[in-house]
Design a protein that fits this description.
It contains ten helices and ten strands. By secondary structure, it is an alpha/beta fold. The chain has one domain: 3-Layer(aba) Sandwich (Rossmann fold). The strands form two sheets. The protein has an eight-stranded mixed beta sheet with strand order 1-2-4-3-6-7-9-10, with helices on both faces. A two-stranded antiparallel ribbon has the order 5-8. The radius of gyration is 17 Å and the shape is globular. The N and C termini lie far apart (47 Å).
């Protein structure tokens, strides 16, 4: 049983506030719903980047600006995040998400791209590289362990109610703002000012944004025993050591899916190393993309 239909129905009644969006941000119609995209355009090598909810594109603007000096950056919100409302075709499965990535690349006429994804979204990036190795040039992941390690994390970090089909989606409707308020307290290092993160997340949710955590968790739970292994696409995992939510997570477990993965630790960062130490992250990407 799936409760995704609840999200699909409620988003038909929702209206996003496009007037508040920065220039260059738009909605692109895909097979899985309209996806919110910020494309820096140009003919430079392409990097596809996605926010890790409740983060949205606005959280990534500094990162996009710095990367765009050398790359065409396409930052987009996956269905169920921000202003990308999933349609009835999207079930948060690996095949759906990886096909969405390629669908978006095809729409934008992009032959090849590197993927910069984080946390559970990293599994979608790995699956895309597994299914379409000729389209994905490199993987840059953050806070993505193995599926089994992530499943263990989910058991401890996600309320049981959200894992239940239908009930979870209903509970999600009333808890997404609450989760956004408390999430950064645990995801960021102690003494970090989380106000700007919370402000952007709540602004999105208050203006028509979404955060379908329940549907995401339920979709990923069905993939726990899925085959997921990539050998030929170079991969780097950036790991923030000050992420309290992953304090017991084995970062080396990613080798189960990416045996040749390079692991780089950011000792002073939490759950969002690409946002917390953007200069080092951008420098690392530039070194690997040469």
């Amino acid at each position: 049983m799936t409760g995704n239909f609840i999200d699909t129905y409620r988003f038909k009644l929702k209206r996003n506030q496009k007037k508040t969006w920065q220039d260059g941000i738009c909605l692109i119609t895909t097979e899985f719903g309209k996806v919110r995209v910020f494309d820096t355009l140009g003919s430079k090598p392409v990097i596809l980047n996605v926010p890790d909810g409740p983060n949205v594109i606005e959280h990534h603007l500094e990162l996009i600006t710095k990367l765009s000096k050398n790359y065409r950056v396409i930052c987009f919100e996956l269905p169920g995040i921000g202003f990308s409302y999933p349609n009835s075709n999207y079930d948060y499965s690996f095949p759906n998400a990886s096909n969405l990535i390629i669908n978006l690349m095809d729409i934008l006429e992009i032959e090849k791209a590197a993927l910069a994804f984080s946390c559970s979204n990293g599994f979608y990036a790995i699956k895309a590289a597994e299914l379409f190795p000729n389209r994905i040039t490199r993987l840059f992941l953050s806070q993505t362990p193995s599926l089994h390690a992530m499943n263990k994390w989910t058991k401890n970090a996600i309320p049981t109610l959200l894992k239940l089909p239908i009930i979870g989606q209903i509970a999600n409707m009333f808890s997404e703002k609450k989760f956004a308020k408390i999430w950064y307290k645990y995801a960021l290092p102690q003494h970090t000012d989380a106000s700007k993160y919370k402000k952007e997340a709540l602004h999105a949710l208050n203006n028509g944004g979404c955060f379908c955590l329940s549907s995401l968790v339920q979709g990923l739970s069905k993939e726990i025993n899925s085959t997921l292994k990539v050998l030929e696409v170079p991969a780097t995992l950036i790991w923030g050591n000050k992420d309290f939510t992953h304090k017991d997570t084995n970062k080396e477990s990613i080798m189960e899916h990416l045996p040749n993965c390079e692991i780089i630790q950011f000792d002073t960062c939490g759950h969002f190393p690409e946002l917390e130490n953007t200069d080092r992250y951008v420098s690392l990407i530039h070194e690997r993309m040469k």
